[in-house]
Design brief:
The protein is an alpha+beta fold. The protein folds into 2 domains: about 5-50 and about 165-300, no CATH class; about 55-140, 2-Layer Sandwich (Alpha-Beta Plaits), CATH 3.30.70. The protein contains 10 helices and 4 strands, in the order ααβαβααβαβαααα. A 4-stranded antiparallel beta sheet has the order 2-3-1-4. Helix 2 runs antiparallel to helix 10 (about 270-300) and helix 7 (about 160-205) packs antiparallel against helix 9 (about 220-260). It is rod-shaped and about 100 Å long. The chain starts with a helix and ends with a helix. It is a multi-pass membrane protein. Keywords: Cell cycle, Cell division, Cell membrane, Membrane, Transmembrane, Transmembrane helix. Belongs to the ABC-4 integral membrane protein family. FtsX subfamily. This is Cell division protein FtsX. Pfam families: FtsX, FtsX_ECD.
Amino acid sequence: MRVQFVLQEIWIGLRRNMTMTISLVITVAIAMALFGTGMLLREQVRASKSYWYDKIEVSIFLCAKTSSNPSCQKQDVTDQQRQALQSQLKGMSQVSGVQYESKQQAYARFKDRFSGSPGFVESTREGDIPDSFRVKLKNPEEYKAVAQAVLGRPGVDTVINEQEILKRFFRILNGLQVAALMIALIQVVAAVMLVGNTVRLSAFNRRRETGIMRLVGASNTYIQMPFILEGAIAGLIGGMFASILLVFSKTLLIDRLAGDVQLVSQLGWSTVVAVMIVSICFGVLLCALSSFLTLRRYLRI
């Protein structure tokens, strides 16, 4: 097979159908960028789950004068109630560790966590956040047993399971992932249709050349190869543009999410590079396969 001839035919095809080729490249770039963003979100959720689920704690907030729980009777928890609750928690088989956090420690942690929102911090005074016990469980799924054992005890205001908060948050991230993949699927369908139209138009424009090549004994592979490579090159260029978009997606969406929401762990660039490679390969295979299937149907050779 003459490589020079094949390359010449590829250039002729791309030049004749320049507008459709540009449209195909843009469509593939958007589709692969959305596909890659969905994969990045999936990896972000997976990394965050494995990181945070090992650190899940049950927060047992104690009664304070500001508590809305009627059983607290607008009174602070007594030292006797606090010590009795701590002894009970340490004796439970589901508990692996108990840490007491005073009002002063809770307020200091609150100021550190929301240091970027000075107005919010200034509106909260020391003592507004009650003291609490932070309970580390051997198995996070055994939260209900611990909650039922302490709820209603003297001095206990509320019990919060951090796992439920994380589940709701990760459900939102999973929804974003599904939305990105659904839009990417629509774009993939549009890309396949564009590939088919581009290849059919290119085959129609060069029907005389392909007829001559068939008469002189050229093989089917030799005739089809320029058309398939045209689609593959368009997919490659689109995948490369998608990689650039994925960099922006990582820095503007994933990293900002990790910075603004402290529940999310940082996603490494190695994962992003791997997703880029997958997106480029998928774009090339998608366009090449679509070209091949279109040729089998519309190019009778």
